[in-house]
Amino acid sequence: MGEHGGYRKTKTKTIKPQLLPTITKTVSQQNGDWYQIEMKKTEKDLDVLLKKMHPFLNKGEFVFFYSPKIKKEILNDAILLFKETEGTTVILPKTIADNLNIEYTSIFSWITLLVNSSLNAIGFTAKFSSELARHNINCNVIAGYHHDHIFVNKTNSERAIEILKQLSENHK
To answer: Crossing angle of helices 124-134/157-169, nearest 10°?
Structure first.
């Protein structure tokens, strides 16, 4: 444990050694709902994931585009960069893409599922994406380390949120 009782001293703060720290943050949804989430452990249980998914509609409009070579000014504003054989797929806020005169074909809304999902969870993506497809809503899913993120056509964002909330409520 060392001289500090299991803690490691640094110049600015004391850090408790643990793999998954508890981080509590409060997130507001545009329709007035508030969620307090604790990122303590990742969840694998499908029923728990569905019950606690809490779909959150992020503010803004987003676009996907492809580039064989990424400009430096894009790096700071990119939501996602994904290298493919043909080049890099980029997700940017629409306002940034417009300012840089970047061409895109569709405008998307970004929904974050606030449950702290495990990258090893089985069936979660299939369940919510199938439900959206059943309602004729396309979705582009990005699995982040802590959360799943869904990009839906801007015209379907409110309906997608309602469908995801209903899916969640049906599992309570």
So the answer is: 120
Say what the pLDDT of residue 119 is: 87
Token pair 């790096």: residue: 75
Instruction: Identify which has the larger pLDDT, 16 or 136.
Output: 136
- Mean of per-residue pLDDT scores for the chain: 81
The predicted pLDDT at position 50 comes to: 87
Whether residue 49 contacts residue 148, with contact meaning beta carbons closer than 8 Å, is answered with no
Look up residue 144 and give its two tokens.
């982040």
Specify the residue for token string 């054989």.
Answer: 85
| The two structure tokens encoding residue 170 | 């049906």
Instruction: Report the predicted TM-score, pTM, of the whole model to 2 decimal places.
Output: 0.76
From CA 49, how far away is CA 109, in angstroms rounded?
A: 22
| Cα atoms in the Cβ-side hemisphere of radius 13 Å centred on 34 | 3
Task: Give me the architecture of the 41-169 domain, per CATH.
Answer: 2-Layer Sandwich (3.30)
CB 137 within 8 A of CB 94: no
